[in-house]
Amino acid sequence: MNLGFAIAAAIGLLGAGIHVFIGGPRLARPLLRSSLHPLVITLLWACFHMVTLMVLAMSAVFAWAAVSYVGRPAAAAFTVVALAASLLVVGAGFKCKVSPLKLLPAYLFFAMAASAFWGLEGTVLPLLAT
């Protein structure tokens, strides 16, 4: 078993749980009751659920890569996505003047990416060097 990918999968499942069970009641549900335009509310609500699906898909692929070499190219792609998502959250925080210390998703995505990069060591990375 590839421990790096297994840890990335576990972090993703933890993140999905936090997203749904804490982010839902604290962020998404109040959004539904806000006075924003219905189109804005609909798109943000859809984005909330797309993030849930994305994180669960990432976790599934990382779990697959943990037990099968065949899943590692897909895991390599999601490793880059996790790192990009972390940077995106931090960038959004700077744009909206929110302290990076308050942005838990940035840390979860970064931890997923770091674990997955560790999982990539000795598998896909040598292919990129040739």
Structure description:
- The chain contains five helices and no strands.
- The relative contact order is 0.18.
- With 130 residues, the protein is mainly α.
- It has helices at 3-32, 38-67, 72-95, 104-120, 125-129.
- It has a single domain (3-121), classed as de novo design (two linked rop proteins), CATH 1.20.1440.
Please provide the count of β strands: 0
Helix content: over 70%
- What class do helices, strands and sheet pairing give? mainly alpha
N-end to C-end Cα span: 26 Å
Radius of gyration: 16 Å
The CATH topology label is de novo design (two linked rop proteins)
SSE string, helices as H and strands as E = HHHHH
CATH architecture: Up-down Bundle
Total domain units = 1
What is the CATH level 1 assignment?
Mainly Alpha
List keywords for this structure.
de novo design (two linked rop proteins), mainly alpha, 5 helices, elongated
Q: TL;DR of this structure?
A:
This protein has five helices and no strands.
Please outline the helices and strands.
Layout (H helix, E strand, L loop, with lengths): L2 H30 L5 H30 L4 H24 L8 H17 L4 H5 L1
